[in-house]
């Protein structure tokens, strides 16, 4: 029986991504140590990545939702908790752990992550929301916690073999990157940023980011902050092979290494546009493509979009972080 005087956590887990026996032991230990009720356990399915489980958790009036799975589980659970006062605790698992990386959470300490879920503090972060218009003119709405993208990154995700990804992790993307780079098609689109005028653009890739770090020390959006109330937007259009080399050097070395330190930021100076990379910031980004293109959200493919309307919702998600986190 649930003691209504004690708090209750719901654990939403992807059975493919976690060792359930280990997870259950750790969560039950931490809940008991914190004086909470026995947790509610909710398993995701192939048809429901987490939104339906959040609805069950909210009906059970839980005080905390713990997401144990990959980036898709985190995104789906965040979508269900959008605008809710219920905090979300992350138990990093899977290939990317994108939000956990950007929040500088420990990735390989299950006991510590579980303990922090019950003893940490809550930090509000922004959510990206996107209305996608499909080629048949239908619309669907989703959230993203890290970034949305079209172009090379979305094609790369579509071209990645799921079985290889499960076995090789992030390395599985290398073959998909090569295949995607051979695609000569560019994105041709009209866009409007905030209340500005509509402009035309051509790019290989468009990234709309709530935060900017990826695995393999890649820092796509060095100035992105997860709780600043705005997007950081990147348009990539390199000129040939040398252009791609310059992009990689800037993303992997200048952003990924130099700009992570105070002395490095002083050396590189303020982030600037160049012929290959163009940066913008804003709270709403609306675009219409000349033809339907693949779109990805937080590293998962979401089919083709003919147009989209993306906006930021400041502080729309409460994240449980360690009590001593900065």
TrEMBL record:
Q: Which UniProt keywords apply?
A: ATP-binding, Kinase, Lipid biosynthesis, Lipid metabolism, Nucleotide-binding, Phospholipid biosynthesis, Phospholipid metabolism, Transferase
Q: Which cofactor does it need?
A: Mg(2+)
- GO molecular-function term, one example from the UniProt record: kinase activity
Q: Name one Pfam family in it.
A: DAGK_cat
Signal peptide region? none
Instruction: Name all DAGKc domain ranges.
Output: 4-134
Question: What's the family?
Answer: Belongs to the diacylglycerol/lipid kinase family.
The record's listing under PANTHER family reads: LIPID KINASE YEGS, SPHINGOSINE KINASE
Descriptive protein name: Diacylglycerol kinase family protein
What species is this protein from?
A: Leucobacter alluvii
Its lineage opens with: Bacteria, Bacillati, Actinomycetota, Actinomycetes, Micrococcales
